[in-house]
Amino acid sequence: MREAWIIDAVRSPRGRGKTGVGSLSNIHPQRCMAQVLNGLKDKTGLDPNDIEDVVLGCGTGSGDHAHDIARMAVLDAGWPISVTGVTLHRFCGSGQQAVNFAAMGVMSGQQEAVIGGGVEFMSRYSPLHANGFHANNEHLRDLHPQVPQGISADLIATLEGFTRDDVDRYAVESQTRAAKSIADGRFNRSLIPIYNLDGTLALARDEHPRAGTTLESLKDLQPSFIKMAGYHAEGFDRPFNELVKKVYPNAGALNHVHHAGNSSGVVDGASAVFVVSPEYAKSRGLKPRAKIRQVATAGSEPLIMLTAPGPAAKRCLQKAGMTKNDIDLWEINEAFASVVLKFMRDIDIGNEALNVDGGAIALGHPIGATGGMLIGTAVDQLERLNKETALIAMCTGGGMATATIIERM
Ligand SMILES: CC(C)(COP(=O)(O)OP(=O)(O)OC[C@H]1O[C@@H](n2cnc3c(N)ncnc32)[C@H](O)[C@@H]1OP(=O)(O)O)[C@@H](O)C(=O)NCCC(=O)NCCS
């Protein structure tokens, strides 16, 4: 099979996902995505006429994110009308899936030059998607009841025995690492500043991290998902915590350990990764930074929902003929602290080489945009640390995960 090369990967800064508070929140998601596409163009010198498709992940699909946000961003960027765009939804793994599909298109020989990535403006969400992922399908609701992710994260902590101290320690490490990476300018290479319509600068740096976070400063934060667990949402036959009991009768009372300081930050952002064939790169004199060696997905039980990164990573390693010992760096999305702790337990690794620049607890998780951001961060890390391989994995809604193995070139 042909190789898929990453020429470059860029992203917007992550703005706080609150209307009127977040510095990106006044900008339309299409406009932000368009600026990231043009940032990629300016950085790499890519010719938009050569781009066969722009594949973008978005986990919303309604309101300002509706329809085909990829094509709209291409048009908003002022790119030739010949450049197509397609938008896909794999919940939080949408952006990673978009890059993986871009790679698969190139590997299969069907495409030469594709952009993968994603966009999400969480400042434009309605407060709670209370009708659930089954979208009012009663049959599926009964067959596979699903609850909001924060409850699933607390269920993982309950079943795995992760304490509040465990998850808070993990969160402090995420903040500490992110603060150092920001202070050292490690993200600067991939950041595209985003501008308002009037031409003024909206945001040039991530604005969610809280440098100086300590165990002490997290101590008084109240668990975020107790009230939600007791909520009886319209279209469900019982409250969420009763649904948990129905599927996990032996779990006992939920241990609510997650709060604002150890859950992924709610943010706005966009990402783009330029993926090409070796022949195309050579013909245009483009120097690759990494190659996509293998991609995979995995599914797991949908109520607990966030446990598939381990199985996806194992499948990806197996397909690549590799073991965990062949991986130098790991980027595992910090949807919630318990998700990453469970991943480390499943794969039997520590955190020395995992999320070395911090993760979504500090930086934020702009759902459909995150996958492209993590892949770009991993490319930067491989070069900075002179390492060879990285594995990126993310949990998603519906009980799935995406995985990608990349190799520095
Ligand atoms: C957990 C959650 C509900 C908290 O939401 P929130 O209360 O709006 O969170 P905020 O970031 O605004 O923080 C609230 C307060 O907590 C405190 N806080 C947050 N992080 C802190 C930290 N690291 N140290 C100390 N205090 C902190 C602050 O007082 C903050 O208020 P402020 O912003 O006015 O200073 C939200 O972050 C969430 O849902 N995260 C997960 C998102 C998700 O599900 N993504 C998909 C994953 S699968």
Write the SSE topology:
Elements lengths: L3 E8 L3 E2 L12 H16 L8 E5 L11 H8 L7 E5 L5 H14 L5 E9 L16 H6 L5 H12 L3 H20 L10 E2 L5 E3 L11 H4 L7 H4 L10 H8 L19 E10 L1 H7 L5 E10 L9 H12 L8 E4 L4 H11 L12 H4 L3 H18 L4 E8 L3 E9 L1
Parallel strand pairs: 3-4, 3-5, 10-11
Antiparallel strand pairs: 1-8, 1-9, 2-8, 5-8, 6-7, 9-12, 11-12
Helix pairs in contact: 1-2, 3-14, 5-12, 11-12
The structure holds coenzyme A.
What does this structure look like?
The mean pLDDT is 97. The chain is of the alpha+beta class and 409 residues long. Strands 1, 2, 3, 4, 5, 8, 9, 10, 11 and 12 form a 10-stranded mixed β-sheet that branches. Strand 11 and strand 12 form a beta hairpin. The chain starts with a strand and ends with a strand. Helix content is 35%, strand content 18%. It binds coenzyme A. The site of coenzyme A (COA) has 18 residues, from helix 5 and helix 7.
Based on CA atoms alone, the radius of gyration comes out at 20 Å
Sketch the topology as an H/E string, one letter per element. EEHEHEHEHHHEEHHHEHEHEHHHEE
Span between N and C termini? 18 Å
What global shape is seen? globular
Please report which band the strand proportion falls in: under 5%, 5-15%, 15-25%, 25-35%, 35-45% or over 45%: 15-25%
Helix content: 25-40%
Largest sheet: 10 strands, mixed
List cofactors, ions and other ligands. coenzyme A
Compose a concise summary of this entry.
With 409 residues, this protein is of the alpha+beta class. Helix content is 35%, strand content 18%. The mean pLDDT is 97.
Essential attributes:
single chain; 409 residues; alpha+beta; ten-stranded mixed β-sheet; two-stranded antiparallel ribbon; 18% strand; binds coenzyme A
